[in-house]
Each structure stands twice: as C-alpha cells, then as structure tokens.
Amino acid sequence: MPSVFVQGKPVDSYPPLAPEARRGSVRRVTEVGEEVLHKPCRDVTEFGPDLAALIDDMFLTMYVAEGAGLAANQVGVDLRLFVYDCPDDDGVRHVGHMVNPVLEPLAPAGRRLLDEGEGCLSVPGAVIAVPRPDRAVVRGLDKDGRSLVIEGTGYFARCLEHETDHVNGHVYLDRLAKRERKDALRQVADRREEVFARRAARQQALAS
Known about the structure:
alpha+beta; Peptide Deformylase; seven-stranded mixed beta sheet; two-stranded antiparallel ribbon; 9 strands
C-alpha cells in the first residue's frame, strides 16, 4: 500500500514539508474566544492566485505550529477551507487541502466511535478526549474548483471531522461537557507560553 496520499491520490514519494509551505508566509493563529472561530465561514467563490497563496500560508503556519490540520478561520480568514498533513492509524500520510468541505453523514452501522485525545492549534496546549467516528468522508473542491472526495479512517478521520467543524464555526471545546471544557482551558493557561515559545523556535528553524 502507498505510504503517502496527496489530495486523495497515491504518490511514490513526497517531501517532509508540502511544497506549498516553501512559498508561504507564517500567519498568526487565532485563539478560542475570537469571533472568527465561532461563526460559520463563507463559501469560497473565487478560485485563483489569492486562494492558492492563502493555502501556501496555511501549510507553512500549520507546520510552524506543529499541527496535523488547519482551517482558514484559524488564520483569521472566514472562508470554508482547510489544509492537512496527517497520518492515519496505519501510518499512511495524507496531505492536501479542501475547499467548501461538507462531511457526509454516515449510517450508524458503518461507524465506530473512538474516544481519543484531541488538541487544537487555537486551544494551545490542551489535549482532551473527544468521541468521534473512526471513519469520515468529506466532499468539496480543490483550489482550482475541481470536485474532490477525501476519505479517512482513525486519526485522519478525526482530523477531517475536526477541520470541518472549524469551517462550520465550532471548536472541539463545543463538544465537551462543562467540566472537561474547564479542564481544557486550565491546560491552556498552564501551557500556552511554552507552546508559543516552541512555535517561535520552529519558525526560526524552518526559515534557516
């Protein structure tokens, strides 16, 4: 089985960082509580160099922040778009972007809930168990407006579900009970500075 899928298609080899990142600039990652994260994003209607440049910036920002996925509203842009570079539970790497994503509803018989630790670049430092289906199918478009269907299992399914939540105006804290949410925010208070220091060091390392 191929070890890397780019935009859902198998490839023989792929660099450690997606080529988009080499063209991108780092943007500030928004944090929970900022309005742009808590309202549904607008559909992308214009496909062209501006969209491609945003995707480049999002890839680099995701790598600097050591994420597996990043939605446009996490860099302050209220558009339905996310990028990802994420392994599944079999160690297969999935890299790509998705414009105007829609998560397909799965029949209960075809899915299992996995209750595993989940983090978010906009909730810096917190990791909390969130139950999510172990399989996801997302339909949308690529940056050129072509139809795209991406299917994921395990950790990659979690990533697709998490990022689609973002473009719908939800952060994973919205899926938690009050006590777990308080625990997550306490983790942020404890670890935020450490997370930002690591991002700064990584940005410097990637720039050199």
